[in-house]
From TrEMBL:
The keyword tRNA-binding does not apply. Its EC number is 3.2.1.-. This is alpha-1,2-Mannosidase. The gene is EDEM1. Gene3D superfamilies: 1.50.10.10. Belongs to the glycosyl hydrolase 47 family. One of its GO terms (molecular function) is mannosyl-oligosaccharide 1,2-alpha-mannosidase activity.
Length: 435
């Protein structure tokens, strides 16, 4: 399985380099590159992510290292240093630029400078902290998003050359504004400059202080000027997912007790208001546990669907030590995968059918599988990893890479391979059977 996962990554990466670099993404069906949609600035599905900075190459750096490919890692780092610039007239989402680009630069920098060299010799002769300097340059260009906001919650988008656009939206999702602390915190600590961590922490605390006094839950969309909740849905999926993830991972990284206290409090609220089904995972009457979408103020059910991003949550439960519940919830998502050979973007648990049918090669279920295998060493999770890998090979592999599934039932495809397929999905498939 390890060699198959590595081969999957290499096929996608080599095709990106051959057909798409220096553009941001690979269109794997037509074997060409894709950058920002300059003709339609409102095409946020593309423009929020693609900043004309060779996104897929940058995002894949640490996966090259983790897979032990020192020569290609060193070559890629030099290519990034010599060709990538953030002095661009590109309006990008602060969240996406942070997790995909800033985080990748910092990870690669730490891999190069780590005295232990856990993945083999990834040192680079004459390396002079260039990736760290690039990370700082990008973060400085993102800082205007935190200015002129009455709450301290950042604007969702920023132009890398000119700052916050004059017509910028005052509404942002909780995950987007509250999932910057890991990267900004690491950058601050590496530079000895608290500015970046301070603005990210201020945003987290501002969101935290807006939670419901009755339920302890947060909504999914907030006005950054008024602090008014525009979206009152509370769940584990889009708009909220990584907010929870970053609270816990920030504590694991930095040891700040306040982060753990916030996570424990919101985890308790999640259990009280979002969890449905029997109390125990594997015994008792009633349905297996399920986490639903509710009104943040009343805790009342708002709809009967879940989205594929929620598949990250079993992995987070492993990290907090709630392994039994993680096993049960993971089994729910894997059962959906088994049914379709992919996870539909949105699934109606009442109708037991997809509501939104596409699958963009997301990594969340694979990450949870990896963490559950680490926690249990149950070979079942090796089987799950292999099953996912084989499904991806069967249903998404095309001439020049791996393509988004447009429809999980008829398996029709879209001509897009998002950067997280190489940087996360392939990485976790590889790690399942390595560590």
């Amino acid at each position: 399985m390890r060699d198959l996962a590595r081969g999957m990554f290499v096929f996608g990466y080599d095709n990106y380099m051959a057909h798409a670099f220096p553009e941001d993404e690979l269109n794997p069906i037509h074997c060409r590159g894709r950058g920002p949609d300059r003709g339609d600035p409102s095409n946020l599905n593309i423009n929020d992510v693609l900043g004309n900075y060779s996104l897929t190459l940058v995002d894949a750096l640490d996966t090259l290292a983790i897979m032990g490919n020192s020569s290609e890692f060193q070559k890629a780092v030099k290519l990034v240093i010599n060709t990538v610039s953030f002095d661009k007239d590109s309006t990008v989402q602060v969240f996406e630029a942070t997790i995909r680009v800033l985080g990748s630069l910092l990870s690669a920098h730490r891999i190069i400078t780590d005295s232990k060299q856990p993945f083999g010799d990834m040192t680079i002769k004459d390396y002079d902290n260039e990736l760290l300097h690039m990370a700082r340059d990008l973060a400085v260009r993102l800082l205007p998003a935190f200015e002129n906001t009455r709450t301290g919650i950042p604007y969702p988008r920023v132009n890398l050359k000119t700052g916050v656009p004059p017509d910028s939206n005052n509404e942002t999702c909780t995950a987007g504004a509250g999932s910057l602390l890991v990267e900004f915190g690491i950058l601050s600590r590496l530079l000895g400059d608290s500015t970046f961590e301070w603005v990210a922490r201020r945003a987290v605390k501002a969101l935290w202080n807006l939670r419901s006094n009755d339920t302890g839950l947060l909504g999914n969309v907030v006005n950054i000027q008024t602090g008014h909740w525009v979206g009152k849905q509370s769940g584990l999926g889009a708009g909220l997912d990584s907010f929870y993830e970053y609270l816990l991972k920030s504590y694991i990284l930095f040891g700040e007790k306040e982060d753990l206290e916030m996570f424990n409090a919101v985890y308790k609220s999640i259990q009280n208001y979002l969890r449905r089904g029997r109390e125990a995972c594997n015994e008792g009457e009633g349905d297996p546990p399920l986490y639903v979408n509710v009104n943040m103020f009343s805790g009342q059910l708002m709809n009967t669907w879940i989205d594929s991003l929620q598949a990250f949550f079993p992995g987070l439960q492993v990290l907090i030590g709630d392994v039994e519940d993680a096993i049960c919830l993971h089994a729910f998502y894997y059962a959906i995968w088994k049914r379709y050979g992919a996870l539909p973007e949105r699934y109606n648990w009442q109708l037991q059918a997809p509501d939104v049918l596409f699958y963009p090669l997301r990594p969340e279920l694979v990450e949870s599988t990896y963490l559950l295998y680490q926690a249990t060493k149950n070979p079942f999770y090796l089987h799950v990893g292999m099953d996912i890998l084989q499904s991806l090979e069967k249903y998404t592999k095309v001439k020049c890479g791996y393509a988004t599934l447009h429809h999980v039932i008829d398996k029709s495809k879209e001509d897009r391979m998002e950067s997280f397929f190489l940087s996360e999905t392939c990485k976790y498939l590889y790690l399942v059977c390595v560590l």
